[in-house]
Structures are given as C-alpha cells and as structure tokens.
Amino acid sequence: QVQLVESGGGLVQPGGSLRLSCAASGIIVSQQRMAWYRQAPGKQRELVARITGIGGTTYVDSVKGRFAISRDNAKNTVYLQMNSLKSEDTAVYYCHIWNTDYWGKGTLVTVSS
Length: 113
Hints:
Layout: E1 3-7, E2 10-12, E3 18-25, E4 34-39, E5 46-51, E6 57-59, E7 67-72, E8 77-82, E9 91-97, E10 107-111
Parallel strand pairs: 2-10
Antiparallel strand pairs: 1-3, 3-8, 4-5, 4-9, 5-6, 7-8, 9-10
C-alpha cells in the first residue's frame, strides 16, 4: 500500500524559510520521479519541483533560486526546502509520485506578516 505523508507546513513571515517533508511507504523514492505540487486558494494545482531517480531536478520559474527539492534514500523521504518565502507562495503543498495517481493529503504553507 502506497502512502505519502507530508509535514512541515505552517505560518511563516515573508522572507522566512520552511522545509517540507514527504515520508513515503510502499515505494522506494530513489526509484521514482517524485514531485511537489501546490494549490493556492482559487487557483489550479501547479507543479513546483521534481526530482528524478538519478537526482536530476526541475523547478517552476517562480521558485528557481529559492526552493530546493532533495531526497534522503535512507529515510525514504523527499524534501522541499523553501527560502525567501513570499506571500504568493501561500498554498497547500502536495507530494506526488510522477505519472501515478498517488498523492499525499497536503500540508498548508501560509506566508504572512
């Protein structure tokens, strides 16, 4: 049974940082392309970052240079380090196994002063 459990969201001031975690079970993350998506209120879900099995990464333009996706194979966990957060980063962030129907339940990130 595949499970993805996100954590690490919360309230942060503009310019602050958060690290999101996605703990996976039922799969081996190093053998999958894993992604973080986000959905802001009233907007469609969008791809934020993706990491391939060999560690290649891609980012949406709006987060390049601020966010970093990474993976800890020993912990079977994928991370999203978010720095220099802006109010427009406010959203529910979801972990996803690329090209599958598997999604986590999401974790809320609110960037506000």
